[in-house]
Amino acid sequence: MNKKTICLSLMALTNTALMAQNVLNVEVSNPSKSRKTAAPVIICLQDHTDTRSALVTKNGVEIASQLDDINGDGIYDELCFVTDIDKKETQNFTVELSNSGKPRKYKSGVYAEMLLPNKKIKEKNKQNLFISSLTVENGSNPYSAVHHHGPAFENEFIAFRLYFDHRQTVDMYGKYHKGLEIQKTQFYPDKQQLASGFGNDVLWVGNSFGLGAMRGWNGKEPCMLEDVDYRTMAIVSKGPVRSIVKVADQGWNTMNEGKEKIDMTTLYILYSGRRDCFVDVKFNKNVPDYKFATGIINVKNSVEFNDKKGLRGCWGTDWPVALKDSAGHKPETVGLGIYIPQGNIINELPADKDNYPYVVGTPTDSFKYNITFGSDNEDFGYHSSKEWFSYLKEWKEDISHDLKIKVSKK
Question: What is the mean pLDDT of residues 319-341?
């Protein structure tokens, strides 16, 4: 071997070392009594802040993964991927973290977008002024100034949009067939798209919670987020494994009597392969004396399911738009669900004309819950209250038992 060959070999070894500085073994176990599908595996990278790319393999086969900078400081906070895992099963993954390169690209199972309307383009499904974040001051209402009224995000099962105003309502887009649609329809499918089987907005949410919007509580009723110093909505991530949408309310007067303003940041996290959305709420301090409200809309003529242990749902039929705009639309049948850990429920309230509500709180600075929905239009979903409520029970069993994740250096 000549001197030049030796130098090249040493360079190759050096580059390999740089590109795979940290090789981890990730042991994932399912402690529950049922199989989990598309179960999220999240690896915190606080000890690997120089990570620029990652490779995840199982039995030598590469699987899709994702690096996320959640707080926007330019450093990846988490690595995530999903796995199907049987009850009581343990799986092992190899994770190679590199301090060079860029995140690997995979076919995405999710999508997210936020846009400003382009007045030069008449078609509502062909807008092109994409933005990743928008912050407004108190008194500003960008609801009508942002396309589809706020950020939209989806996976192959379901799609949502968040209202960029004091309601911050979670609205729903139902599908006929599995697949990603929002990039093509932008929440407003045209006649040709509807004729070819694209989905559409399936529920008129008005001033209700929609599907699990967070609100204040003044001791008598839910309060919308009207008194906020600054409101931000942002696309944190758009795949390939999960989309993350952030809502930040700085200087929020929650209407809790005598309490100072607080900051609240809510992350809506949607994974590929799942019918539910994870809601992660974070405050700027511990809030043991504050009360909040959330729940689901009381769909017209709906049947309620309630296990009195944090799981609540309904199945009903209503117009997807205001009645004055109902021409060309049909009534839509949907199933909704919310799961709130019992430790966060202060009071479960009876249904009113708008909602199935809860008063909630947390002794700490964080609060997590889950939301889910289905449309009767789906050729892959549920088509009766009996089927939907059976799914809700299985869903709670799934999300009530986290995977056990053990990370060690190889």
Answer: 82
Q: Where are the beta strands (DSSP E) in 114-241?
A: 115-116, 129-130, 133-137, 152-155, 159-162, 170-174, 200-201, 215-217, 222-223, 228-238
Which domains, from first to last, does the chain contain? 19-105+405-409 (2.60.40.1180), 110-379 (2.70.98)
249 vs 232: CA distance, rounded Å: 7
User: What's the whole-model pTM score?
Assistant: 0.94
CB within 8 A of 279, min separation 6: which ones?
212, 214, 266, 267, 268, 269, 368, 369, 370, 371
**Token pair in block for residue 30:** 């399912």
Side chain identity at residue 255, one-letter code: M
> Where does the pLDDT of residue 172 fall: very low under 50, low under 70, confident under 90, or very high at 90 and above?
very high
Q: What is the pLDDT of residue 256?
A: 84
Q: How far apart, in whole angstroms, are the C-alpha atoms of residue 3 and residue 283?
A: 61
> Token pair of 93, please?
């993954």
Q: Write the DSSP string, 52-103.
A: -EEEEEETTEEE--EEE-SSSSSS--EEEEEEEE-TT-EEEEEEEEESSS-P
Report d(CA 76, CA 305) in Å as an integer.
40
Place of tokens 């990278």: 45
First CA to last CA across the chain, in angstroms?
Answer: 32
Name which of 210, 190, 208, 209 is nearest 200 in CA terms.
190
